[in-house]
Amino acid sequence: MLKPDECKIVKQITIVSPHTRHGEISIGYFLYERPMTPTYKYNHKPKEERQIDYLLTYPLQENFPTDQIDKIILQSVKDIYPKSFARSYEVYSTFDIERTERLVNRPFKNGMIMIGPCFADVDVYSLTKNEFEALNKPIKVYADYSSEIIENYYFNGYYPLNDETILDEIDKIIFL
Questions:
Q1: Which of 8, 12, 86, 120 is 20 to 30 A from residue 65's alpha carbon, by CA?
Q2: Which residues have CB under 8 Å from 166's CB, separation 6+?
């Protein structure tokens, strides 16, 4: 087992694209890791509520944390590829580290995710002469098949205008 401060959650965002012959295909994914904290951790069921199916389906995706940051990142992809989805993995042991290494040990192309302010439901004219922060984070988009089909991926996410501190939290995220 890893030390508690080394435990993490890895999020995998799978990019699902329409395909003329196959309906939809996964064309690639990107990964990021977040440290586990008292508020951002896997939510285990109490022992008395565990059934055999709990062990057969562990870890359940619904028990992983998903906060506003995770939603912003996933939505930036879903705005272009609506069928895309997120999957989470625990990193508690060297086995989990090896699984993550297998996920990144494949062809990839560089991409970018830009997080900027959301001006929806705001009188933008009242904001003239104000400055708002944006953040560009490089990502690696790993190929499920041929890396030729993943070119120049650039995703735009939006944070609430009243919460610029979210950029500091996103900036701490390690994209793998």
A1: 120
A2: 68, 69, 72, 115, 159, 160
